[in-house]
Amino acid sequence: GALLALNKPPGLPVLGCPGDLSLDALLPTLRRRLGLAAELHVVKAPAREYSGLVLLSSCYHTTKKLQQFFTNARWRGQYPATYRAITMGVPAEVKGEICTGLRWQQQEDRAMVRGCQQAGGTGDTPGSAEGCALQVVPVPAPGRRSLARKDVKSTLTRYRVLSAVGGCALLQLQPR
């Protein structure tokens, strides 16, 4: 079957209620436009709040095998997602780890913020009012209480400098 990769915008849920705009609701139209005979299945996709790569398959068995691969990799502590970023500034070490906390924060400039949960959302994002202005911000040294209350999420990302020139760097990043 066919494998297809799409770039999902932030704010688009993978699943939705009948009649609501969601990735799942768009799949039949996408299948017809691509001329595929088989139904498309979501292998892997980012949550509603995030943009990113969506992997689709037109073969049910391929979908299940790939989903199992990602599940098994997570259980083994292996994370197959790898990203690239261009940074202003070059890390002191050629490779290392970034360990920090992340939390949602209300923002002053609503025009800059994307990915807020709208009314009737999934509950993954604080503040469900229409037009909310939230952004993810780093918390360098999160306390035990904020982690226990899940106000802050602890994160670990491995990085490697692939290239550096003119005070900028190309990094390979692997979140854990």
From TrEMBL:
InterPro entries: PsdUridine_synth_cat_dom_sf (IPR020103), RluA_PseudoU_synthase (IPR050188). GO terms for molecular function: pseudouridine synthase activity; RNA binding. One of its GO terms (biological process) is pseudouridine synthesis. This is RUSD3 synthase. It comes from Buphagus erythrorhynchus (red-billed oxpecker).
